[in-house]
Amino acid sequence: MTTVLLAFALGSLWTVAAVLDAPPSSYLLAWFGIVLVSIDLRHHRLPDVLTLPLAAGLLLLEFQRLGEAALSALLFGGAHLAVRRWRPAVMGGGDVKLAAGLGAPLPLPLLLPAAILSSAVTLVLALAKRTRRVPHGPGLLAATWALTTL
């Protein structure tokens, strides 16, 4: 059943991206996002074996604006690293690495909206699960996919 739901979610995201003529990063985010969200929700982990290739792929897809993409990745990852250093219990290291990679396809003006939207998704997830211990990866991935696709 889980496989069917994941396949449906991936197909839905790819269809939306295709209809909107989204950039290639939307498709990469959809594929990795479905896998990473399911892992993070179940195990509260974002494995490097997935987050690091995603980061490299997103950066490579932004070759036409590589300087801005690298700066966005550095700023988005750095902001999440600051939160991790300030309140280690609130954010894991996998979230920081994921955020650095997800910064690449986001233009600089969208970094703040991405942070706000990802936090809002995480808050909704916490309210739905009625717990304070929820992963932030799904919020990061959903916000980045939405802002790069829509």
Write the layout of secondary structure elements.
Elements: H1 2-19, H2 24-43, H3 48-61, H4 66-86, H5 93-103, H6 111-129, H7 137-149
Helix pairs in contact: 1-2, 2-3, 2-7, 3-5, 4-5, 5-7, 6-7
What does this structure look like?
The protein has 150 residues and is mainly α. It has one domain (2-149). It is 77% helix and 0% strand. The protein has 7 helices and no strands. The two termini are 29 Å apart. The model has no long low-confidence stretch (mean pLDDT 95).
- pLDDT averaged residue by residue: 95
State the helical fraction: over 70%
What is the overall shape?
globular
How many structural domains? 1
The share of residues in extended strands comes to under 5%
In short:
This protein has helices at residues 2-19, 24-43, 48-61, 66-86, 93-103, 111-129, 137-149. By secondary structure, the protein is mostly helical. It has one domain (2-149).
Task: Tag the structure with descriptive keywords.
single chain, 150 residues, mainly alpha, globular
